[in-house]
Design goal:
heterodimer; A: 249 residues; alpha/beta; Rossmann fold; three-stranded antiparallel beta sheet; 9 helices; B: mainly alpha; MetI-like fold; 2 domains
Chain lengths: 249, 262
C-alpha cells in the first residue's frame, strides 16, 4: 500500500496568557491508502488539533507533513453541522457547490449515495425531519460526495446516545468499507476504535505523542457487531486500556 | 393517524380563534368603558376624548383631505428610515464581523451612542439639516441604526462553530462563508432586529415630527396639543398604535416565511 500521508516530528504549541502550552510534541505518523486508523488518547491531548493540522485548517506548527498536492481531504465533525434552511439534497451537494463542482457525474454520484443509504425519498425534506442517525448519514454523504482520498472523522458519534451510536457507527463503517476510503478517526471510545479500525494509535496525554500503535487483526469486516464478537476483541481492549492509563500523572 | 392529525390541527385552529375572540373582546371592552365613562362624564371627555369623538375627528380629517396626507407622510418617513437603518446597519455589521480589529475599536463608541438619549441631538439636527423631512429621517436613523448594527452583529457572531469549521475545511471563500452560512444562520436575529428597528423607527419619526414637521401623525399630536384639541391628540395616538401593529404584523409574516425551516 502507498503512503498518502507522512508526518514527521510534528510539534504544535499554543500561546496563552499563562505561557506556551505544548499540544503535540514530535509526533510521527504514516497513513497508507485504504487504511482505517483510530486515534485514541486522554481528553484534550491534541487529537482534534492533529486533524485540523492535517486538513490545513491550522498551519501554525513545526515539523514536516508530506501529502500529495492532489490529496483530497474531507472532514466530518462531532456535530452533523447540517444547514437547517437547506433541503436534504441541498445539504448533500453543499461541498460540491462550494467547490463549484456541480457537474452531472458528481450529481449522479450524490443521487446514488442518497439512494444507497435510504435518504433519496426524503431529498426534498429539511434536516429537522430526520432522525439523529439519518442526519449523521447525510453528513457522511455530504463528505463522501467530495470523493475524498482521506476522511477525517472527529468523534462523529459522540453526540449520540449509546443505542444510536452503535447503529450509526455500524452504518458508517459499512459505508466507508464499501467506498474503500482511507480514514483517520478520532474517538474516546475504545470499543469503537477496535471495531472500526485496522490500526489503533494510542496517544499520550498533552503534549500528544504516539505511545503505541496497535494493529487490529480482525478478519471479519461485515459489521462492527460481528467484529465485536472476535476472540481478540477483549485482548485489544485490555492493551488499549492499560496504555491509555487515564490515571497517569 | 390522519384523523388524529386533523383533530390536532382543528384544535390548534380553534385555539387561535378563541385567542382572537378574546383579543377583540378586550378591545371592545376597553372602548366601551372609555365611551361610557366619558358619556356619563365620570372622566372629562374634553381631556380624555372618547371613541365616538375620535371617529368624528377622523371623519372631519377625511373631509378636510388631511387624514391620508398625514398618514402618508409618517408612513413614508417610517419606511425610508427603516430601510436605511436596516441596510446601513447590515453593511456595518458585516464589516465589523469581517474586521474584528475594527469591531474592537468601535465597541465602546457603539455602546456610548446606544445609550445616548438621541432627543438631545434634536436642536443640532435642526441647525444642520433644517426643519424638513431630512431631519425627521436623521432623527429616526440615529435611534434605529445603532440597534440594528448591534443586533445583526451579535447574530453574525453566534454562527455555529462546527458549521464554520466545516465550511473552512471545504475551503470555502470568505464570500461563500458569509453568503451561504453566516447570513442565513442569522435570519432569526435579522428578523428580530427588524422588529426592534420598526419600533425604534416609529419613536424616532414621532420625535422628529414633534420637533420639525408640518405634516404627519406626530405633527397632528403636537398641533392638537397646541390648540387644546385633545380629540386630535387621541386620534394621532390611536393611528400610531394601528400603524405600529400593522408594521409588526408584516414583519411577523416575513418571519414565518423566512424561518419556516429554521
Amino acid at each position: 500500500m502507498n503512503n498518502i500521508l507522512h508526518i514527521e516530528n510534528l510539534t504544535k504549541n499554543y500561546q496563552t496568557k499563562e505561557g506556551i502550552i505544548a499540544a503535540i510534541k514530535n509526533l510521527n505518523l504514516e497513513v497508507k491508502k485504504g487504511e482505517i486508523i483510530s486515534l485514541v488518547g486522554p481528553s484534550g491531548c491534541g487529537k482534534s488539533t492533529l486533524l485540523s493540522i492535517i486538513d490545513g485548517l491550522d498551519n501554525d506548527y513545526s515539523g514536516y507533513i508530506q501529502k500529495d498536492n492532489k490529496l483530497k481531504i474531507a472532514y466530518m465533525l462531532q456535530s452533523d453541522a447540517l444547514l437547517p434552511w437547506l433541503t436534504i439534497y441541498e445539504n448533500a451537494i453543499l461541498g460540491l457547490k462550494i467547490e463549484h463542482n456541480l457537474n452531472r457525474q458528481n450529481l449522479e454520484y450524490v443521487d446514488y449515495l442518497l439512494d444507497l443509504y435510504n435518504l433519496k425519498e426524503f431529498k426534498n425534506n429539511y434536516p429537522q425531519n430526520l432522525s439523529g442517525g439519518m442526519k449523521q448519514r447525510l453528513a457522511l454523504i455530504r463528505t463522501l460526495a467530495l470523493k475524498p482520498d482521506l476522511l477525517l472523522l472527529d468523534e462523529p458519534f459522540s453526540a449520540l446516545d449509546q443505542q444510536s451510536r452503535l447503529l450509526i457507527s455500524d452504518d458508517v463503517y459499512k459505508i466507508i468499507k464499501k467506498e474503500k476510503k482511507t480514514v483517520l478517526l478520532v474517538t474516546h471510545n475504545i470499543e469503537e476504535a477496535i471495531t472500526f479500525s485496522d490500526k489503533v494509535i494510542i496517544l499520550s496525554k498533552r503534549p500528544a505523542s504516539i505511545k503505541k500503535i496497535l494493529t487490529i487483526d480482525i478478519k471479519n469486516e461485515s459489521s462492527i457487531y460481528e467484529r465485536r464478537k472476535d476472540i481478540n476483541f477483549n485482548k485489544y481492549f485490555d492493551i488499549i486500556w492499560k496504555d491509555l492509563d487515564i490515571n497517569e500523572e | 393517524m390522519k384523523n388524529n392529525e386533523q383533530k390536532y390541527l382543528k384544535t390548534i385552529k380553534k385555539q387561535k380563534i378563541k385567542i382572537l375572540i378574546w383579543q377583540l373582546f378586550i378591545l371592545f371592552l376597553f372602548f366601551s368603558i372609555w365611551e361610557y365613562l366619558t358619556s356619563k362624564e365620570i372622566i372629562s371627555p374634553f381631556i380624555y376624548s372618547s371613541p365616538t369623538r375620535i371617529i368624528k375627528c377622523v371623519i372631519e380629517l377625511i373631509h378636510n383631505h388631511n387624514f391620508f396626507i398625514h398618514i402618508y407622510v409618517t408612513l413614508k418617513e417610517v419606511i425610508i428610515s427603516f430601510i436605511l437603518g436596516i441596510s446601513i446597519g447590515f453593511i456595518i455589521a458585516l464589516l465589523l464581523y469581517e474586521f474584528k480589529f475594527l469591531a474592537q475599536i468601535l465597541d465602546p463608541f457603539l455602546t456610548m451612542l446606544n445609550s445616548l438619549p438621541k432627543v438631545a441631538l434634536g436642536p443640532l439636527i435642526i441647525i444642520l439639516w433644517g426643519a424638513n423631512i431630512k431631519s425627521v429621517i436623521i432623527m429616526a436613523l440615529l435611534i434605529n441604526l445603532i440597534v440594528s448594527i448591534i443586533t445583526i452583529y451579535n447574530g453574525f457572531q453566534c454562527t455555529d462553530e462546527y458549521r464554520l469549521k466545516l465550511f473552512k475545511s471545504m475551503k470555502a471563500s470568505k464570500l461563500q462563508i458569509m453568503t451561504k452560512l453566516v447570513i442565513p444562520s442569522s435570519y432569526q436575529t435579522i428578523i428580530a432586529s427588524f422588529k426592534l428597528c420598526v419600533a425604534q423607527t416609529l419613536v424616532g419619526i414621532i420625535m422628529g415630527e414633534f420637533l420639525v414637521s408640518k405634516q404627519g401623525i406626530g405633527y397632528l399630536i403636537v398641533y392638537g396639543k397646541q390648540i387644546f384639541n385633545l380629540n386630535l391628540v387621541m386620534t394621532g395616538i390611536i393611528l400610531l398604535a394601528i400603524i405600529s401593529y400593522l408594521l409588526y404584523k408584516i414583519i411577523t409574516c416575513l418571519e414565518k416565511k423566512l424561518l419556516k425551516h429554521i
